[in-house]
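To illustrate the input format used throughout this study, we show a single complete record. The first block contains the structure-token representation of the backbone; no residue identities are included at this stage. The design step must infer an amino acid for every position from geometry alone.
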């Protein structure tokens, strides 16, 4: 995958842009990406980490976002004080986490007026995802899929009962503008769309869990969508789910999610076997 170059004049992504709770549904609008489109997974990255707010937790949260492709190469992270405020930790804790990320080569730091901490150019999500997949057992993959299926099915079933069809039409229209032959662009668009559908369930708790799972599992799902035929089938499942939600058909929406998850799991297990053999 060719990564875009870092530009020193890129605006920082501020902490306020990463708020994950909208005023009326438990979710704020998501932060814009470099393309200007919102990326709702970013909201899951910079949420407070609670009482276990240690430097290692901050480091892991940001590292997982980088390795999962949520924070892309060249993105400038919020300043230490903003990070500390977002995560609910002391500035010294945020500083320690950034230092650890630099030592791992995941971020670089530049001095000067346009300086700051940037995601490294060589942060390739696909490479990280393959390494993580090779270290994940089949049992763990299936267990993660069961959890994802339970939460996502609950979200789409509620959305089918509560969403206005026009809201789904807007999501479908935005997906129609995405190049379906670009697996990276399509995956990001689907991630955002899935979270939007979850928000339409009108359950803030389910939506937050969907955001967390999407950020965790999207890198694995992206590995499946690399082959044209696999990508086509995944698109069909996703669009069928959206159509069913728009029609208020909770059962069909849930079935589409189940079919998609089943395909992803089997393809990942096959890929994992090839990685083991290679």
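Output of the design step:
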């Amino acid at each position: 995958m060719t990564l875009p170059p870092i530009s020193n004049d890129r605006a920082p992504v501020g902490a306020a842009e990463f708020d994950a709770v909208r005023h009326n549904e438990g979710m704020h609008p998501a932060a814009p990406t470099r393309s200007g489109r919102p990326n709702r997974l970013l909201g899951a990255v910079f949420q407070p980490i609670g009482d276990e707010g240690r430097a290692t937790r901050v480091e892991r949260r940001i590292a997982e976002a980088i390795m999962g492709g949520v924070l892309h190469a060249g993105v400038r992270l919020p300043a230490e004080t903003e990070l500390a405020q977002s995560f609910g930790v002391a500035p010294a804790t945020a500083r320690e986490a950034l230092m650890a990320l630099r030592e791992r080569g995941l971020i670089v730091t530049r001095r000067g007026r346009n300086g700051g901490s940037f995601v490294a150019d060589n942060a390739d999500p696909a490479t990280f995802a393959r390494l993580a997949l090779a270290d994940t057992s089949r049992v763990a993959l299936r267990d993660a899929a069961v959890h994802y299926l339970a939460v996502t099915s609950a979200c789409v079933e509620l959305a089918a009962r509560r969403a206005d069809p026009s809201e789904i039409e807007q999501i479908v229209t935005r997906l129609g503008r995405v190049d379906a032959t670009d697996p990276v662009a399509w995956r990001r668009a689907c991630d955002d769309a899935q979270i939007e559908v979850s928000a339409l369930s009108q359950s803030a708790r389910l939506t937050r869990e969907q955001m967390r799972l999407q950020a965790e599992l999207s890198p694995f799902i992206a590995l499946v969508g690399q082959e044209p035929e696999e990508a086509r089938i995944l698109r069909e499942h996703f669009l069928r789910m959206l159509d069913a939600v728009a029609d208020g058909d909770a059962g069909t929406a849930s079935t589409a999610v189940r079919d998609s998850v089943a395909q992803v799991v089997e393809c990942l297990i096959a890929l994992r076997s090839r990685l083991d053999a290679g």
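Structural context for interpreting the output: The radius of gyration is 19 Å. The chain is about 60% helix and 5% strand.
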